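For the sake of transparency, this paper describes our internal protein records without simplification. Because each token names a local backbone shape, the row as a whole describes the fold. One such record is reproduced below, unchanged from the form in which we store it.
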Amino acid sequence: MSKNMIIGQSGGPTAVINSSLAGAIEYAFSSNKIDTVYGMINGIQGLLENNIIDLKERFYGKPYDINRLRLTPAMFLGSCRYKLGDDEKIFAEIIDVLKKYNIGYFLYIGGNDSMDTVDKLSKYTASHNIDIKIVGVPKTIDNDLVGIDHSPGFGSAAKYIALAVKNTIYTCIISNIVLKAFILLRQWVVMPAGLQLHPHLHVTVTALHLILFICLKYRFLLINLLRMLRASLMNLTRLLLL
């Protein structure tokens, strides 16, 4: 007997988060084990509020619309920052909704907090012998999810940072500019700034002198240091232009 699938998105968007959604929908339509595909509006919070749409009705037999979804920015299903705690009542409410829609497959697209939701739900269903497959679909620009080499979203953010630095070098005659990418404790996104020095990019200037990895613990000290450095560089620039 076939079951239904439900899918949601949470956390911050990436350039490719809807591409992951489109891929999941497309695969579900091709499977004889999945009947209807539902979507949670605004993630797990929307699920608890019974805010659910029929994605099969919206996309089945419409490859053009699925391809448009793949290229659509932001988050088609909306998002939330809802974190599951240890309240058994909340877990029971979630399962009641899933049973109401005959869900056999639960997919959640997101980063660390979303994967925490997946982990807690998975453990709850396993401990209560509930036959619902709980699946986490990785999405984060931070590239810090355990078990994968790189997550969808990181490549887009890395390219953006690298091109921002490269274009700044080409645009500015005097390259005394501080570019700041503050990404909490996850510093993978800052590292691609060094890609602008790669020989295959044919960059003839080496204006990138320093990459600072800002630790959250000392962020206020380092931000003030960066402000002082920026002021000093601006004064130097004015002197050079005199």
User: Anything to note?
Assistant: Residues 219-241 form the longest helix (23 residues).
